[in-house]
Amino acid sequence: MLDSSKASPALSAAQRTLHIVATVEKYLCLSAFAVLVTVLFADVISREATSAGLHWASRVGVWANVVVVMAGFGLASSGGVHLRPRFLDRVLPTRWNPILQRLQQVLMALFCIAIGSVALSVVLGSWRLGEVELTLFLPVWPVQAMLPLAFFVAALRHLLYSLYPSLLPVESGAFNVAGTSAEAGPRS
Length: 188
Prior knowledge:
This protein has helices at 9-50, 57-79, 97-129, 141-144, 146-163, and strands spanning 132-133, 138-139.
């Protein structure tokens, strides 16, 4: 992170925003994972003790997993460990990297806005129809709302990265090939 005492007010605000969002995503992910593990463990114990599981456990586990995955999407992006195609990294001249880096962030933000918009229309449709989960008799839209929320937050994150490239996390990637580094860019 940058020393906020030397940063512009806008950069400091962006840095604080990203920090708060990442913190909320971490706690949300951990909480949902704890629910997932607890419910599934209780279901297994119930099956072993009574030969009957908790009829609602798998559905709650699936919903908790949706929260884990969507919060994890943001955490991967904020940590620089998301998957990214790298096959063109060495094709373009190194001097283009700053422009390409900003363009990449803008395109990712636009992609997230598009997917978030589609997801929002699904959530609004479920809400209007009053769809409920048949096992739990609860509305499905609150859990579905994690999808557009995660994509819109990711769009904000990537827009901030495009405006303030110094806030970009050091990219480590999920899979690095031996003998290469995450920082290895195009040669020219």
